[in-house]
Amino acid sequence: MRLQVLLIKAGLIVFLCLGGCGGKRMISPAPVFPPECILLAGEREAADTVTIGLPHRVEPWHAPHARNGSELFLFNQLYQTLVTIDCRGGVQPCLAGSWTRENGGRLWTFQLLENVWFWDGTPLTARDAWRSWHRVSNAPLLRGLGIDSVTVRDDFMLSVYFRRPCLDFPRMLSTSAFAVAGESASADQWPLGSGPYRVERSAPEFTWMGGGDIRAYPAFDGPGPVLRFVETAGRDVRDLLDGVIDMMVTSDPAVVEYASSQPRLINLPLPWDKVYVMLSTSRVSALRLNNRFDFLPLEFTELLARDAVRGEAESASPPFWWENLDGCGDLSAAVNWPPLLLAGASPAGAGRVLYDAKDNIARDLADRIVALGAADPSLSPGAGALGASVPRFNGLPGGLVAEGVDAAALDRSLRNGDDFGYIISLPRRPGDPCYEARKLIYRAQWLSHLEDDFPSALIPLVNTRSRIIIKRERTGLTVDWYGNIRLLTGTGKER
């Protein structure tokens, strides 16, 4: 009986490339994802429409490269990458049917599937992949990844040349930064995708105001419900779950508690996908002088996870991906002129601990850390632990203040280390650690050229995860290595 259930589930898998790499074509080789990747098998007869609540604003002109969790959820239904990573960590074909590695990892060649189309019926080619990569990744960051050049060899083959060996490049391509999109007929429309869902509304017409929404329709006359995405910010999600909302991803403990009490709602935990860290300019300045400092003890980070964070959290404990970057080469290649003097490391005045104002967990952590900055380290173990990890934590003349700012202001300060400290989130288990390390260093350029001390610059705090709340019998769901959710769009048969 158990074997029969597993076979039924395996037949339902329409993950990324069966359900995500949709199109008017047959896929060869067909990816086979393990049954563990199915969160919810769904009913044989899917709902006509599934309404999905999104906590953040979606900007169509960001597509296909998401800048928040809501955009990531939506864009994952519309756009695809050359490869994917299943929930167990296996690399699977998607837009690329095969790839080869030559010259010890300095040359990678990808053969794209020849019968994949964009929504408007135009073929997806190697040149589309090349254009998408160059549109999302500016030239300095591409150089920092070690890519020497990308050559389109024919309509469906492209080669990537590296200055030094890159042994696991396909895993890097599974990230949303390498999603492939086509150019629309006009600049005011969504970029074309090749996924199982398409959107028709042009960007300027899109608005959340007045109850506006986004509707995504099955592409290529494929199976699956219409998806309606609505924003939930400023509204009581519990009321929405009683009414129009069929599904949402949330870390709000009040919503999770409410869903757990409702038998008609399914409440599923997602993988631990984020690790929150503190970056300190005073610590990095001291590391540059070959000083060494403690990391936060496990007892303290357990208290942070239990008492400071309003959401599902656990202590961030090793091993961490940034501790093993052997073979990555020069992580700082994208940084031409790193800041030598860090304004945030100055002992004068008050020190700001910045965080993204839309990130509630970062706010909780920053508030607790700043509160401990005002405590007597001889009486407070937490204040003492932070003082041993962060130079001048207990000694700033004006003390510490926590301040939430918008993403643009955070990035401006973070780039050159203009403030005392930062609370940010990183992927807990990235597809390619070298890629994530280079992205972080390019974002916070004062972390560059630390060499072997780079891992010591990151102070891990807590891991977090979200939950997906869904009404019973609405649709099936799959999850990938990153914790991304995709909807099952049918019975597993190719369109």
Task: Tell me about this structure.
This protein has helices at 2-12, 69-78, 126-136, 139-144, 169-173, 237-242, 253-260, 281-288, 298-308, 360-373, 381-389, 407-416, 433-443; strands at residues 38-40, 49-54, 83-85, 91-93, 96-102, 107-112, 147-154, 157-162, 197-199, 214-218, 226-231, 247-250, 265-269, 274-280, 313-315, 351-356, 400-405, 421-427, 458-464, 467-471, 477-479, 485-487. Strand 21 (477-479) and strand 22 (485-487) form a beta hairpin. It is of the alpha+beta class and 495 residues long. The two termini are 29 Å apart. Helix content is 24%, strand content 23%. The radius of gyration is 23 Å and the shape is globular. Among the domains are: 200-271 and 466-471, no CATH class; 274-464, Roll (Dipeptide-binding Protein, domain 3), CATH 3.10.105. The model is unreliable at 1-31, 203-211 and 491-495 (pLDDT under 50). It is built from 13 helices and 22 strands. A seven-stranded mixed sheet has the order 9-10-11-2-12-20-13, sandwiched between helices. A six-stranded mixed sheet has the order 15-19-14-18-16-17. Strands 5-6-8-7 form a four-stranded antiparallel sheet.
